[in-house]
């Protein structure tokens, strides 16, 4: 998707998009499509906010240079041309993305009144737009297709190439060029370290990998993400220009305490980090930094402030505001100390729980339901602790994200917490409906063929009783879909009397899903053709993953299988 150095916010956005794309591959549901629509709106709002922030930075740089020019100082006059070059190239790139968005909105049949995308799930015309184009197909151009995908990739990666060239042309310092350097936004799967070598996607082109089989609403969300990628680079380019203002930004008698957070949005339990520094510094002036989690950087003129973002969210709350304070004490030339206060705000975001399992919505009663519970926002700091109502929770010995739930009630609430950075942070409660496993089928095989219940059978037939589990249940929980029968009685209804037992077949130690042999042999040699016989099952038990027997609730009638001998 995107390379280069990313802020924690961008990494979180990328993770959200990947999770939604993975869910989309499993199930193109209305909920997933709406999630993409919601993600698109959020990214669009963020992109606008980011662009406004960059516009303010541009105006501030130009205003400062104009102020210097008014004082007869032309040292930084060239920075105005730099800023305008950055703006022109950025606006051109964002403009190209906006053109693509307009075309995608046509494909998605945007409602002109509400702005809603009506055909969110449209895939065919979307794929045609990206990969086919006029006179092409998805295999042309070395698998890149003949559509708009390659053009977009060239525009996005071209912007990155230009940005790196811009820095190189303005600054010969290798350290600066390394600090202000960006990798391509569109990375070929064969070069993408996030795609495993064993993945079948490794041999695909970026165009096919990115746009094959996706609905138009997903690509509309991706376009907003690409705008965020461009604005991220835009912001860093402006930051580089600001550094060129140098010491003339402030007078030496105007000391200002500054802080620069890595991100203003932090997941609960993760570390909040901000840099503290004085806008005007000197090798002869060593400021003193005071506050929680302070560590002074090499050189002593700046410090890093790090502390754990608090948890504790109210019901229904997903974000909350938190504050931090620090003090920077700076010795002045007259021997006095000037105290510079630092106050800041940031947003603590409740981490999202991502659950995967064979049956996400429901749990099976008295079965070993194994699920994978992850909180991507916490990364390697995720150290889960699980609780559950009306259920037994069994942690996995090798994978901390996996947990087995054995429900004993009609409803189960799984509590997810994480012991992160010394705090036990409550993340979320996940509510499940508990359902009973579906009943298995009771089948009779006569001489290797399933008995139809109507055709007479030979009196010396080789029969077999088979308990067949529900296919979906077996696929989801194979260790819970095993069945046994204590015994099977053979009954014969001679003349007009009641059926009498003539033989019994033991099921002890036998797997009823594989079949229990019922060889009639000579048990019916005295019975005339047309005699009714019955196979009566004692009881049917399901064996769960812990090898415990759970009786299946069949009626007496269900436990009789009738036939007629010939």
Q: In percent, how much strand structure appears in the residues? A: 25-35%
Helix content: 25-40%
Q: Helix tally? A: 10
Give the neighbour order of strands across the main sheet. Answer: 1-3-6-5
**Morphology call:** elongated
Mean pLDDT: 82
Question: Any descriptors?
Answer:
4 domains, alpha+beta, Immunoglobulin-like, 566 residues, four-stranded antiparallel β-sheet, single chain, 27 strands
Descriptive account of the structure:
The protein is an alpha+beta fold and 566 residues long. The chain folds into four domains: 222 residues, no CATH class; 99 residues, Immunoglobulin-like (Sandwich); 82 residues, Immunoglobulins (Immunoglobulin-like), CATH 2.60.40.10; 124 residues, Immunoglobulin-like, CATH 2.60.40. The chain is built from ten helices and 27 strands. It has a four-stranded antiparallel β-sheet, with no helix packed on it. It has a four-stranded mixed β-sheet with strand order 2-8-7-4, with no helix packed on it. About 2% of the residues have low confidence.
């Amino acid at each position: 998707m995107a390379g280069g150095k990313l802020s924690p916010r961008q990494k979180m956005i990328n993770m959200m998009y990947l999770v939604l794309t993975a869910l989309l591959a499993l199930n193109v549901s209305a909920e997933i499509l709406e999630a993409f629509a919601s993600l698109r709106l959020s990214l669009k709002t963020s992109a606008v906010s980011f662009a406004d922030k960059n516009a303010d930075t541009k105006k501030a740089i130009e205003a400062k240079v104009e102020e210097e020019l008014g004082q007869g100082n032309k040292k930084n006059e060239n920075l105005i041309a730099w800023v305008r070059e950055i703006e022109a190239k950025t606006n051109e790139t964002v403009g190209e993305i906006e053109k693509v968005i307009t075309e995608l909105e046509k494909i998605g049949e945007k409602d002109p009144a509400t702005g809603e995308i009506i055909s969110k799930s449209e895939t065919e015309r979307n794929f045609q737009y990206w990969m086919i184009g006029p006179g092409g197909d998805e295999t042309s151009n070395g698998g890149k297709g003949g559509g708009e995908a390659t053009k977009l990739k060239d525009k996005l990666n071209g912007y990155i190439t230009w940005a790196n060239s811009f820095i190189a042309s303005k600054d010969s310092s290798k350290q600066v060029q390394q600090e202000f350097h960006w990798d391509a936004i569109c990375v070929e799967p064969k070069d993408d370290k996030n795609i495993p070598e064993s993945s079948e996607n490794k041999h695909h082109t970026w165009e096919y990998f990115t746009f094959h089989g996706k609905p138009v609403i997903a690509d509309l969300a991706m376009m907003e993400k690409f705008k965020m990628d461009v604005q991220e680079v835009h912001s860093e380019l402006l930051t580089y220009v600001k550094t060129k203002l140098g010491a003339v930004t402030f007078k030496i008698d105007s000391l200002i305490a500054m802080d620069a957070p890595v991100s203003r949005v932090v997941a609960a339990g993760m570390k909040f980090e901000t840099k503290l520094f004085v806008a005007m510094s000197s090798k002869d002036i060593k400021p003193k930094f005071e506050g929680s989690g302070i560590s002074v950087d090499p050189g002593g003129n700046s410090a890093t402030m790090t502390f754990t973002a608090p948890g504790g969210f109210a019901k229904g709350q997903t974000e909350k505001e938190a504050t931090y304070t620090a003090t920077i004490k700076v010795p002045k030339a007259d021997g006095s100390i000037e105290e510079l206060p630092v106050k800041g705000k940031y947003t603590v975001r409740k981490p999202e729980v991502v659950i995967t399992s064979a049956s996400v919505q429901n749990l099976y009663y008295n079965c070993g339901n194994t699920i994978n519970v992850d909180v991507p926002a916490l990364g390697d700091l995720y150290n889960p602790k699980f609780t559950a109502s009306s259920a037994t929770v069994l942690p996995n010995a090798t994978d901390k994200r996996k947990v087995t739930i054995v429900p004993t009630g009609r409803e189960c609430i799984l509590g997810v917490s994480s012991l992160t950075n010394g705090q036990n942070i409550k993340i979320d409660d996940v509510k499940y409906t508990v359902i009973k496993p579906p009943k298995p089928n009771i089948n009779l095989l006569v001489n290797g063929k399933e008995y139809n219940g109507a055709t007479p059978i030979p009196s010396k037939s080789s029969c077999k009783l088979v308990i067949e589990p529900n296919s979906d249940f077996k696929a989801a929980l194979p260790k819970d879909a095993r069945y046994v029968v204590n015994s099977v009685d053979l009954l014969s209804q001679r003349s007009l009397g009641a059926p009498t037992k003539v033989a019994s077949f033991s099921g002890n130690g036998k797997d009823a899903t594989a079949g229990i042999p019922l060889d009639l042999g000579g048990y019916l040699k005295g019975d005339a053709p047309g005699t009714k016989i019955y196979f009566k099952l004692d009881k049917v038990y399901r064996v769960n993953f812990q090898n415990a027997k759970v009786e299946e609730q069949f009626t007496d009638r269900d436990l009789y299988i009738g036939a007629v001998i010939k």
